[in-house]
Amino acid sequence: MAKRPSNYRFSFGPWNISAGADPFGPVVRKEVPFAKKIAEYRKLGFTYVQLHDDDVVPADWDATQTARGVAKVQKLLESEGLKGEFIAPRLWEDRRTIDGGYTANSASDRRYAKNRTRRAVDIANMMGIDLMVIWPAREGTYIREAKDAQLATGRLVEAINDILEHDDKIRVVGEMKPNEPMDHAYCPSVGHFMGLAYRTADPTRTGVLIESAHSILAGFDPADDMAYALWHEKLWGVHLNDQNGLKYDQDKTFGSVDLRRAFNQVWVLERGGYADIGVVGLDVKAMRTTKQTDQTAHLANSKRIFDHLVALARSLDEKKVEAFRENRDYEGLDLYIVEHLLATK
Ligand code: XUL
Ligand code: MN
Q1: Which residues place a Cβ less than 5 A from the ion ligand 2?
Q2: What does the pLDDT look like over 225-236, one tens digit per residue?
Q3: 283 lines ligand 1 (CB under 6 A)
Q4: Structural domains in the chain?
Q5: pTM, full prediction
């Protein structure tokens, strides 16, 4: 592996500085205004901002209000030396998307989802962003019989095509997650979305964003999912975090549960030259018990752990790894990796 200087670019979303509300209790920290959150990025070593459409401007603003509001946010980002990484239409909170957006049974709800998505593309355009993230939160069912899954698959492709046709520069990435909020999500894995990507109007502009926790919840190793997408030249975004078993989506600090699993993700990104392809997004959440003064520690810590793991990936003796492989000495390789992570011999 060629040794390269550390040139990763990092991002997080304003929702990653949160007040700690969960489905069982209210906020435990003060809400931080958007502009104050933006002022934290540089201090933490981040230069890209992940954005939902309504992080930028409220969803019900008209075209004039939207253009004005977007320009204001763009100015704020520029004043901090920041860039937007992507726009994601937040389709899961509106009353018209209770039953999903693109796969809703109601034609008028599907129309709303498409219109809102086109508007999100317009926001991206106004901000000079060429990446749209689709996390299909409610595109699925609570019971198998509620929707027609075959029809839903076609509707998802239609929705992606709608984006690609609305703008000829935008790239679309699917961020797949198998469950939560839905019991059964359509297109539950990276592989599923990749299959769809090749059937869209422009496969060269359709790829994936891989979130560690989502792959883990689907029962896959995130490093292998990333390697798969890299081979297809379709890994255009990552959301690194960690996950303690098969529960709700935890968004824990990267590497805080399974350091070796985190190392393997970083090693794959290194080997695939990801630093030159995309931004390292950290979709991590503070523990609910976190005090106000420490509300960005999970972001700083995730980045720090990532940097440590880059150093470990770069100092790994690849010749040694090859020799272990040639010898079929996987016990030896196992020990070598664990001792490398322990920084001991
Ligand atoms: C949901 C999730 C989202 C997306 C952006 O699990 O990860 O925050 O990253 O919509
Ligand atoms: Mn995410």
Answers
A1: 211, 239, 283
A2: 999 999 999 999
A3: yes
A4: 10-314 (3.20.20.150)
A5: 0.97
